Amino acid sequence: MDQKIVYRTNRNIVIAFVVTLLLLIIIVDAFLLNQQYTKMQVLAKDRTTQKLQLATNFSYEPILKHDYVSVKRFLEKWANNDEMLISLHAIMENGFTLVDISKDIESTNSITVSKDITHENKVLLTISATEDYSEINDSITDDSIILFVISTLIVSIVGYFLWLVLRRTAIKPLQLAIDDLIQSEKILEKRSKQLELSNQELESYSYSIAHDLRTPLRSITSFSQILKEDSSNKLNEEEIDYLDRIYNAGTFMSQLIYDILELSKISREEVNYTLVNLSQVANDILLYLKNLWPNVKFTFEIEDNVFVLGDEASLRSLLDNLISNACKFSSKSPSPKIEFGVQNRSINPPVFYVKDNGTGFNLKYAEKIFTPFHRLHKNSQYDGTGIGLATVKRITEKHHGKVWVESEENKGATFFFTLGNQALETSIPKKELEIN
Amino acid sequence: MIKKVLSKLTLTILCSFYLSISHANETLTLSIHPYKSATILHKAFEPLTQYLSSVTKTTIQLQIAKDYQSHIDLIGKDKVDIAYMGPASYVQLVKEYGKKRLLTRLAINGKPTFKGVIVVPLKSKITTLQMLKNTRFAFGNAASTMSHLVPRYMLLKAKIPISKLKKYAFLGNHENVALAVLSGNYDAGAVKEEIYFKYQSQGLRALAETPSLSEHLFVVNNNLHSNLVKKLKNEMLNLHSIKENILILQSIKKTASALVSVKDSDYENLRNILETLDTENK
Fold it and tell me: Which listed site, A153, A392, A393, B131, has its alpha carbon 20 to 30 Å from B143?
């Protein structure tokens, strides 16, 4: 198969080379033939002009003496004896045609020359001679055939030798390089497949571990809670504190496992494209988020009619993570404000944003926050697992988009994201929706 | 008596024999006036001389005269035996040397006479001879009957002597006259009828026709034996009766059809014309 590709490539190089050479030769041949044709035409015209000059020289004296018969006879004799002469006309000053000879000769190339016989600035007679130079065309045709044959021969010989040289100096090493490249590609492809398989195995392994961990964890938290409730009067404060710590650690671990499972799920599952009303999703999320901070008075600004094509469950998770973060990190602000919308509807891909006026962070950590388990705050300050933004990043990537952040410490943060190329729809009836 | 009769008979037979011998050994000269080059004239008259030589059993030699006057003098002084001459030359000959014996004259297309035409361009405003006054007029040869002498006589009759012409020139031949008129270099010109017909379609118009004149003729000198003259005359008159002999005539002139009888009075009208011109010149 690879040999065939190399063979085809080499063959195409040779064909391209020969065609180029042939075109070049044709252009050069055409130029040479044109030059030759022009030269022959000029010589032919000179020849006819010289003949006409002789005729006018002879006719000058007789015309002055009104010996028209001599002129007529001379011109007629010329016409009869000169096989190349197609037509000869001698016109007098008043337009009278003294000689009017037209031979029945078919010509593919004729040259006409006219000359006046003048005396004291007065035109006495104008002689026009047309001669047949079809031989020039015939000669050029013959030359072109010979030239074409010679040129083709030269092209063939030169092409053959150049091909030999090319094959030895360039094509053979090139062929070896191509072989190496193809070999490398094959290895790379094999390794890539192995890697993909490993990843799948790893994800599946993580999923299994996480899933299996939930049951014993649930037992730990449940039994620690039951122990606390049933034996609270038998335990001292320190022992109750230990039980609370066990319960809190278990709950955190349970949340962590849930988040890991979510991240894993997003990575594994295919994107199921539908038309999603992000404005509606954001409003839904706000409804339950408000309940988590009952004592905080948030201000929400949600842009209406933000419709996109995407996986609804994933996009819900994306907005949930971003808006939850926004609420969390602005909950301690005096007048927390959360915004969601589209930066500019006319650009493609459209850029969406979730903005808050919370604590913000130093931008030097901007890249780190999207990696799993990486957190900028302690759990005592703001709880969390460090999986949320990694999930957001994974969702945007699955939609062929990206996510980035702009922030300043104590001045809030704005998360921007795109979801691949798409004309931003404001309102599309769901019935008309077509998903590819 | 018998002796006398025998001697007379013998003498007659001897005389006849002598005469026939003398004719057979005689060399005759046929002189031609130089109206074309010597080579062309030799070629043209060679068939006729050969024919006449064979039928008369004499040797006839061709001689091309140096000029028209020499030609007249040669025949006038009987220095040549036969002369082929134009009508004007013949009138001049008679005037200078008296009448000569005539053989035949040429018939062109069956006619022993010919005419000339005074021509103008087709679109010319000239409609009468009188209107030729103060115009440019082209003649052929000064010695030519139809391209000079007769037209000049006609102009004279129309009260236009050549001094009343604006310009005139002798262009050498009839064709040059026709072409000079066609090319607009001359307002009118004189040509023989044959040339007029040739160029009529190219834009020539006949303004006037000349009177009919007798054609070219053969004249013999006074010394030539009458029997031989008679023989020559008969052979010439019968020449066209044999189909092949027409070529002999056509060699002289393409349109020649026969040699016909001629008499001095045939040239009377020309004689009058020339006399009138002589008077004018005096």
Answer: B131
Domain of residue B187: give its range. Answer: 116-210
Which of A219, A259, A223, A257 is CA-nearest to residue A243?
A: A223
Q: Which residue has the tokens 């080579």?
A: B39
Residue numbers in B near A98 (CB within 8 A): 179, 183
- Greater confidence, A175 or B231? B231
Contact assessment for residue B262 and residue B104, using Cβ atoms and an 8 Å cutoff: yes
Q: Which residues, including other chains, have CB under 8 Å from residue B47's CB and lie 6 or more apart?
A: B247, B248, B251
Domain count, chain B: 2
State whether B191 and B228 are in the same domain: no
Q: Which residues in B lie closer than 8 A to residue A92 (C-beta atoms)?
A: 182-184
Chain B hits for A99, CB-CB cut-off 8 Å, are none
ipTM score for this prediction: 0.72
For residue B199, the chain A residue with the least C-alpha distance is A98
A96 in B contact zone (CB under 8 Å): yes
A423's tokens: 């004309």
Residue A434 structure tokens: 């077509």
In single-letter form, the type of residue at position A14 comes to V
Question: Are B247 and B195 within one domain?
Answer: no
Mark residue A420 as left, alpha or beta (left: phi above 0; alpha: psi -120 to 50; beta: remaining): left
Contact A68 B202 (CB under 8 A): no
The answer to whether the CB atoms of A96 and B172 lie below 8 A apart is no
Q: Give the C-alpha separation, A251 to A245, whole Å.
A: 10
CATH number at residue B58: 3.40.190.10
**Same domain as B147, residue B62:** no
CA angle A381, A375, A267 (to 5 degrees): 135
Contact A92 B182 (CB under 8 A): yes
Phi, psi torsion values for A197, nearest 5 degrees: -65, -45
Q: Determine the distance in angstroms separating the CA of B172 from the nearest CA of chain A, rounded to an integer.
A: 8
The amino acid present at A153, given as its one-letter code, is L
Record: contact A96-B173, CB cut-off 8 A: no
Task: Give start and end residues of each alpha helix (H) in chain B.
Answer: 2-25, 38-56, 68-76, 87-97, 150-157, 174-182, 193-200, 226-237, 246-252, 268-281
Asked if the C-beta of A66 comes within 8 angstroms of chain B's C-beta atoms, the answer is yes
Give the predicted TM-score (pTM) of the model: 0.54
A431 pLDDT more than 70: no
Interface residue B185 vs chain A (CB under 8 A): yes
Nearest to A96 among B172, B183, B186 (CB): B183
Are B173 and A69 inside 8 Å of each other by CB? Answer: yes
Question: Given CB atoms, is A64 within the 8 Å cutoff of chain B?
Answer: no
Conformational region of residue A285, where left means phi above 0, alpha means psi within -120 to 50, and beta covers everything else: alpha
The pLDDT, as a whole number, for residue A349 is 87
pLDDT of A96 above 80: yes
Residues B199-249 pLDDT 10s: 999 999 999 999 999 999 999 998 999 999 999 999 999 999 988 889 999
pLDDT tens per residue across span B180-191: 999 999 999 999
Decide: B84 and B32 in contact? Cβ < 8 Å.
Answer: yes
Residue A404 banded pLDDT, cuts 50, 70, 90: very high
Q: Check residue B8 and give its pLDDT.
A: 57
Better-scored residue on pLDDT, A272 or A354? A354
Inspect the interface and report whether the beta carbons of A66 and B185 lie closer than 8 Å. yes
pLDDT per residue over B45-94, tens digit each? 999 999 999 999 999 999 999 998 999 999 999 999 999 999 989 999 99
Statement to judge: residues B10 and B108 lie in one domain:
yes
Tell me, yes or no, whether B37 and B83 share the same domain: yes
- Residue A282 CA to residue A278 CA, distance in Å, equals 6
